[in-house]
Structure to design on (802 residues):
């Protein structure tokens, strides 16, 4: 009976949304981003503490939907020329090399072996844009130079991480083939290039025309279905190529930015509403993923050092090129910290290393915790330290709960 | 690799939305309800024909979400006093008794045995409101007397079906306990009564007040999260009591009808956007469920007769009390046909009978197909025959696809 309830769809949705609500309230009380409240409460209801919810395939699926929808919504706020600039490529490149070296060295210091060290380095390369983008959105800072640099560099960063992953796998196997690496680069560049051209010229023109048809007048909801379908198709294509699905969803959003819809429903509004529900579920589920039970003192030490290395290497690796390309000091620091959350990308790489047998549960858990800690610490630093949105008792009244 | 793609979330979403889109186009071409187009294309991509998608747990979960959200949206358009009227109870009662007897007799004629016959009768009792409500919505007829009668009677009908199910199970076990049946009645009546009072007086007042807080001003999306949480909590409670989740979601919608939201986002709009995506998935998935491979000539004969009996008994069982309670002839016919779709409720009862060992795959498949056929036939009859929305070449232009 209890098992029945726990696996019940309505129960899982109720509890996830209830926890999201509590997360907002907690975040408001401690004056942090809602994301932090949701992750913390996710940990509390997860398997290691209350055990009210487990990371079932259904929750996993909803969280994936959430990540895809969030990046699609974020993409809808950017023009192509805002995101793809040479200086962002420069920031992304150095911001991948420094953490890779840092992660590799720290793992070698702990004597985890060559293959493990390569994977630890790889896991430190990829930035998770969902967190920072959402925090900047909450603060209304999404259209600042720093935010654009973070998002542009994070997208390019994801492509570079993919290349590092391919390189690491070949290193472990013993022979590096530049042909294979070249192919990976080619596929990624082609996908982004073709995806943007097709999206910006063909799909968005087609949607603009479709909006004027009688079919769209008869079924105004169709345009929203089409837009979401395109988001998921781009996400799928990105995954097939080996990029993460969210990069595809972001590209779809960028492609569909700026189309004026007259007859049909606003897909931007619709995607935002979807993002509210599934975004909340995504952030709660990040907390549910954390099983605190497996942590020993040794692992804790490694996790703390690894997290510090992860943040410092990304900070240095992005701050320096940002400064060199002419950004001011504060913006460069924001970019450095903003690129720090590793989130789900590092978790995916960790899972891959575990499945390939390169390391055991201990390093896997360490990487997951590092990803989570960078994810929790970054919004706190950006909000409270960099943008001075510290506690202010008068800012907030809260009477009716 | 292929398995990987088929179980990929982005792939499943893309294909479901793509099929929904094609379903709209097909429906428009043959001038039918979008629901029909979606179900037919669902059958085509399902396991028996193209095999592009299977009814995975994830698809099942999304479909359940869809059914809950649709009924919540429908509920948001009704006041309590619109739905719960004595004459709707009368329509529901006779509309349950006649199909039960009809189903029982036809199954006895085919010599399927007493237990099977009781379950076939039971499966014919419950109306699926999702289909008819959606068709009436599409046609802009949701605020007519007939639509109100259908929805009111269908909700009560669901409660009565639950009682019939309890009764049938006890009959098969050999001893009918009126105490147990009384308890089932009591729980259902209490849930509906308390749910409506709590929803209409306490929750809706609380939401109205919450909308004015600074928290709601800071996070306008919170009110939408709360509304959806309430929908799923009501759905969960209904399931725990033994009613179907969608009845709970409908009650939640009725409870939250008519609240004016100023600071927060409109949860009605948000729920409608969710309903567009997940409703489409729900209707496609009904088609995916159908495995045409298992059909033999014998089963086909039984299915056809059973479907005819299902429609005729519901038509008679609802038409007569509707006429007696003073509705005009046309409205009474619309109510009779509108109550005919059995949809997911009959499928759930069929699955229960199969799992309890009362009958084998043949009767199970027959019940599922009957549920589907009534679901496909009803919108066609209502649209084309009763409301005369027949083919009209000039009504629709379609140039840009």
């Amino acid at each position: 009976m209890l098992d029945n309830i726990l696996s019940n769809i309505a129960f899982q949705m109720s509890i996830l949304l209830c926890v999201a609500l509590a997360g907002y309230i907690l975040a408001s009380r401690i004056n942090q981003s809602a994301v932090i409240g949701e992750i913390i409460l996710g940990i509390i209801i997860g398997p290691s503490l209350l055990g009210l919810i487990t990371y079932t395939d259904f929750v996993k699926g909803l969280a994936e939907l959430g990540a895809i929808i969030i990046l699609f919504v974020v993409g809808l706020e950017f023009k192509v020329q805002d995101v793809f600039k040479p200086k962002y490529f420069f920031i992304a490149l150095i911001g991948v090399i420094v953490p890779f070296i840092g992660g590799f060295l720290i793992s070698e210091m702990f004597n985890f072996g060559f293959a493990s060290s390569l994977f630890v380095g790889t896991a430190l390369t990829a930035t998770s844009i969902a967190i920072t983008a959402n925090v900047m959105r909450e603060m209304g800072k999404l259209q600042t130079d720093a935010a654009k640099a973070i998002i542009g560099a994070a997208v390019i960063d994801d492509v570079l991480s993919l290349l590092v992953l391919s390189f690491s796998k070949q290193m472990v196997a013993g022979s590096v083939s530049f042909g294979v690496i070249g192919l990976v680069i080619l596929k990624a560049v082609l996908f982004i290039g073709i995806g943007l051209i097709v999206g910006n010229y063909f799909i968005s023109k087609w949607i603009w025309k479709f909006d004027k048809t009688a079919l769209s007048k008869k079924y105004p909801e169709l345009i929203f279905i089409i837009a979401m379908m395109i988001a998921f198709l781009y996400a799928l294509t990105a995954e097939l190529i080996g990029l993460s699905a969210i990069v595809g969803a972001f590209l779809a959003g960028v492609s569909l930015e700026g189309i004026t819809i007259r007859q049909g429903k606003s897909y931007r509004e619709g995607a935002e509403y979807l993002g509210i529900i599934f975004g909340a579920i995504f952030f709660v589920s990040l907390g549910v993923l954390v099983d605190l039970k497996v942590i020993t003192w040794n692992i804790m030490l490694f996790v703390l050092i690894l997290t510090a290395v992860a943040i410092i290497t990304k900070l240095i690796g992005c701050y320096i090129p940002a400064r060199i390309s002419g950004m001011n000091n504060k913006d460069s620091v924001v970019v450095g910290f903003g690129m720090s959350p590793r989130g789900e990308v590092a978790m995916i790489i960790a899972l891959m290393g575990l499945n390939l047998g390169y390391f055991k549960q201990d390093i896997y858990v360490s990487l997951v915790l590092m990803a989570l800690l960078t994810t929790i610490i970054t919004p706190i630093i950006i909000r409270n330290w960099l943008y001075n949105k510290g506690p202010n008792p008068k800012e907030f009244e809260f009477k009716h709960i």
In short: Residues 323 and 329 of chain B are 7 Å apart (CA to CA). Chain B has one domain: 65-271+294-386.
